[in-house]
């Protein structure tokens, strides 16, 4: 009897072990090819790699796409869907085509972040909001036309779109965020909207082929590093209403050869024109009060610069590395005394 009981117990234990080791067959609903991503929004992935989002209303944040998102080559958002969720298609490395419907109102933060194979996208006229970093890292993206419903380009929206050659911004845009177009290395020219009133720090940093840009009249302040390392930038037109420059705003613009600082600016900040190796002509306003350290450092081709009598402070190293520079100063001025104290070449205006 005991032997029989032990035999039955052993068989039961073996059955439990086999059941545990053998995976259950997948349920139809968990096949990985369809699901929901909103209260009334669904998704479906077909065998050709097309992911279709359909339904009505907003898409919700969703990260349960099938494994290996690199096999998704196309995304189609159907009419009726009003938003693309934050990070919806982030790092879909195989994505090459996107279809967005009229009626779409917003594209969320990081929605197409680092979709590095995506060459183009058509933004619908109905669009009113682009989330921060929405297309950041889309290195194959070559052309974008932003629709008229957009009033603000958020932080880093097109950051690192290294192949973007054409960018059209509507006059409705009044603000451009930090790093919005930084490292768009193929962009050669850009017309900024007439209504633009504010631009974030480093917005155009390292746009290495950008040659010329005209800032609209509504811009009163340039933020830190806005055009730093734009090595092809030759000329820039600063608006008359400009009152402040940010640190390193033109640093590393090695092709920049001429600049005229408007009358309302009272300070040339740290490294504002540092390493502008081709700068030969610079004009400073009569009401300038301060020049900070490294402001013109390593401007090796700058041979003459007039310092206004209004100056009350020049920081050490403001002109370091400017080996051919002779400063033009007024007799008895602070600038004249500074030149004497620091053994800087200078001369006075002719009587």
Question: What does the model show?
Answer:
The chain is mainly β and 351 residues long. It has a domain at 211-351: Alpha-Beta Horseshoe (Leucine-rich repeat, LRR (right-handed beta-alpha superhelix)), CATH 3.80.10. Helices cover 8% and strands 22% of the residues. The strands form nine sheets. It has a five-stranded mixed β-sheet, with no helix packed on it. A four-stranded parallel β-sheet has the order 4-6-8-9, with no helix packed on it. A three-stranded parallel β-sheet has the order 11-13-15, with no helix packed on it. A hairpin with a 4-residue loop joins strand 2 (41-45) and strand 3 (50-55). The termini are far apart. Residues 1-31 have low confidence and may be disordered.
| Spatial order of the strands forming the largest sheet | 1-2-3-5-7
**According to CATH, what is the class of the domain at 211-351?**
Alpha Beta
CATH H level, superfamily name of the domain at 211-351 = Ribonuclease Inhibitor
N-to-C SSE string, H for helix and E for strand? HEEEEEEEEEEEEEEEEEEEEEEEEEEHE
Q: Kindly report how far apart the N and C termini lie.
A: 128 Å
Described by strand count, sense and barrel closure, the largest sheet is:
5 strands, mixed
In the CATH classification, which architecture of the domain at 211-351 applies?
Answer: Alpha-Beta Horseshoe
Which blocks of ≥5 consecutive residues have pLDDT under 50?
A: 1-31
What is the CA-based Rg, rounded? 30 Å
Report the CATH topology name of the domain at 211-351.
Leucine-rich repeat, LRR (right-handed beta-alpha superhelix)
Look at the helices and sheets and give the structural class.
mainly beta
Kindly state the percentage of residues in helix.
under 10%
